[in-house]
Write a structure and sequence with these properties.
Blueprint: E1 3-14, H1 53-65, E2 69-70, E3 73-74, E4 77-80, E5 90-93, E6 100-109, E7 112-125, E8 129-132, E9 139-142, E10 149-155, H2 162-179, E11 191-201, E12 211-216, H3 219-238, E13 246-251, E14 256-262, E15 272-273, E16 280-281, H4 284-291, H5 298-308, H6 313-319, H7 323-335, H8 339-354, H9 366-377, H10 383-396, H11 400-406, H12 415-428, H13 430-437, H14 443-454, H15 461-473
Parallel strand pairs: 12-13
Antiparallel strand pairs: 1-10, 1-11, 2-6, 3-16, 4-5, 4-15, 6-7, 7-10, 8-9, 11-12, 13-14
Helix pairs in contact: 1-4, 2-3, 5-6, 7-9, 9-10, 12-14, 12-15, 13-14, 14-15
Amino acid sequence: MEFETVIGLEIHAQLKTDSKIFCGCSTAYGAPPNTQTCPVCLGMPGVLPVLNKKVVDFAIKMGLATDSKINLYNQFARKNYFYPDLPKGYQTTQFDLPIVEHGVVEIEVDGEKKRIGITRMHMEEDAGKLIHDEHEPLSYVDLNRTGTPLLEIVSEPDLRSPQEAAAYLKKIRAILRYLDICDGNMQEGSFRCDANISLRPMGRKEFGTRTELKNMNSFRNVESALEYEIRRQRDLLLDGEKVAQETLLWNPDKNRTEPMRGKEEAHDYRYFPCPDLVPVEIDEDWIERMRATLPELPDQRKQRFVSVYELPEYDAAILTGSRELADYFETAVQVCNSPKKVSNWIMTELLRELKGEDIAVCPVAPGQLGALLAMVEEGTISGKIAKTVFSEMMETGKDPQVVVKEKNLVQVSDEGELLAIVQEIVDANPDQAQQFREGKDKVMGFFVGQLMKKTKGKANPKMANELFHKVLKG
């Protein structure tokens, strides 16, 4: 029996506000435990929350960026459950009246484009954090994160593979980062994802029993966890067993999912309108003010890179995957007006050296890379020498001109000097010279290699080819 996979994602994006959603406590990451708290976020008796307006601004911007409906009237609710990291015994969130609904984003997997629906987005507060002792059967509670503003983004069950889920997750993260409303740091927990997954026989419309996956803190973990859960559910169904509706944790060390608890339904949380917060009313002027602040978004920038810089769609998609990388490319192109060459270097040499690290930590500034490639275009150094220079720049952060001067790497383009070496190489290799004259053009690679060896890679390759042809045919 063939099964169809059905996946929906719930993304929690921590919003880049200086203070929490309902109080003035700092949201800065890394402070000592329980030092960024107050009676409001600790849920002390008699306190009243006050909504942070910037949280609403950010939610509206994300709604506009995903072609969603902004609800002019929305309301906070209490989600009731008991857990050690939830000091109030409930989470202030939104339920039946969220701020954003009915959006869409476009993803691309294996050259196929697909539109993924967004059911809703709602504002809510984060819970605290449990820290488990590695040596004693103890857990500690850090409430610094309590009250940090989140935007929960819930997709339609439109995803059909782990690869589509990862592509959707990356697209949402890119939009949030372009808008500068979330830093997207999965390791620090400011961008988190839960996945709902079920299988159904191919052709059936009714959904199967779903499980929820948690504890996935990287794109690779999301794909791995979904692939494992698909296999697990398929094996159960083929054996005639039922899939239990439950919440699972992904264990990256064992590469498997592990049961956490039974999956709750909405009624288990006993939602009701929050009596301490008035409804949020938004007018069209507020929406238009936010629309005016929207930057160029990833899909728009990708199309501009294709049309203006004449880049292939694949290159443009990679370069616009993050705002910082796209900015890096455009700054480099201002110095070296050869977009394809800049693109090739960023996608091969630069990204390989970064090894997955963010472009922000790159020691080579975009202007420096542009200057290096301009030296290649001008014939000052060869492409091969440029790679040597680039490696030195990555280690030291020095300008390319400084590295070239210090290591005496200026390309040899003096025709008289090169001609003498070329003649010497041809005279020393009569058999290869005869092969070339008999039409074996591949021998030219041997001759150029010998020249590069003698000049330590500094010979102008274009001039070298011309001179060898001149001497061999003369």
